Amino acid sequence: MSDIRIATAEDQVLLDKEAKYCSYGDTVHYIEPPRIFSRCEGSYVWDTEDQAYLDLQMWYSAVNFGYANPRLNNALKKQIDTLPQIASQYLHKGKIELSEMIAVDAKNKFGLDGRVHFNVGGSQSIEDSLKVVRNASNGKSLMFAFEGGYHGRTLGASSITSSFRYRRRYGHFGERANFIPFPYHFRGPKGMTKEEYGSQCVQQFARLFETEYNGVWDPKTNQCEYAAFYVEPIQGTGGYVIPPMNFYRELKQVLDQHGILMVSDEIQMGFYRTGKLWSIEHFDVQPDVIVFGKALTNGLNPLGGIWAREELINPKIFPPGSTHSTFASNPLGTAVGLEMFKMTSEVDYGAMVMAKGKYFLEGLQDLQKRFPIIGDVDGLGLALRCEICGPDGFTPDKATLDYMVEEGMKGDMVVDGQKLGLILDVGGYYKNVITLAPSLEISYPEIDLGLKLLEQLLVRATTR
User: Fold this and answer.
1) Cα(303)–Cα(440) distance, integer angstroms
2) Which of 14, 81, 152, 175 might form a disulfide with 157, Cβ 3.0–4.6 angstroms?
3) Beta partners for residue 257, in sequence order
4) Could you give all domains of the chain from N- to C-terminal order, each with its CATH number?
């Protein structure tokens, strides 16, 4: 095990400049000293010392199709040479065709007509969705959301994100969401199956509508004070918590009974992360709005958007000028998005991702048998979780996971004679969950390598 890593002289010059000129408002100082990276390809990134790191989080699932994916990179290069930019008040082919792809897919899957609106990223698209649902509900500003849910850090998005930390210093945009417990079975009541716990959570939510004195429902007018329920079908920052398959179907029945829209936040789980284009597809429900971003452009361009039912977003109810962004639907982003859809239509990505995810999960389950500090593992497609706990296998142990992350970034592990680092992401309610989002293009030998590197980190953590 190596000592604390020292920055090179060249890196230290850059870090000194960063300390003087860069805002620390973003999250770049998890590791000291911070790494400075110089290139990337496939499932790997290299730092300025040309040390390779296997990346099992892929920019928070923004790079689903691998770093420097040749096909997607070439689509961007081709677009640069034809129509690299155009003001968003003008039309171009890419915007129309990408909208068509998303809308036709939704029609085929959910049986609903709808339209697509683009913006520059996930949080901004959440803001647009808030406008859509507030407008469609005659200005209702109250929303339901989940404990453990994350929808972004702009003012509106942070108001429906469960962490008070993100809005403590800024106040609220409208009203704070009513946060509802999520069926986190590993930390739920003992003696219940996953499905029973999911039903119990729905029943607890349904209690809010029993009488007017539960605070959200007027039975005399059949009106609810809340416009929509924002859901991450699989929680992202909350720790890749996967609910029981009956949960959303039962929840949607309650929402439909009371005129509450379901907004599916697919920013982190969309574009085949879970083996389907949208993670909500696993749960046999029809969302009213879908919000997407991140992997639409494989991290090459900041582009996100929303799909919404025709009744919510047609030009009569959501007319021109309802929202705007200078770079929304930019041709570079839509070109990559179109190529991504073409690429994924030529291969059965669903079957491929599910097979790789099953293989990876089996490897994690094997590690769980050998290391008692792994309290829980779970996964859907290539969205996988590994919860690090104390010796009892249940008490959250953030410190041990922080240690593992730091050790992985030292770049000093050796597998088959190759020195490597390992990039992990930390999530969960207690910040003790490894949230694994490897490239969907990851090979089986690379999965094996990732498991070997994880094993080395677990050995270090349990023998230090």
Assistant:
1) 20
2) 152
3) none
4) 9-68+349-463 (3.90.1150.10), 75-346 (3.40.640.10)
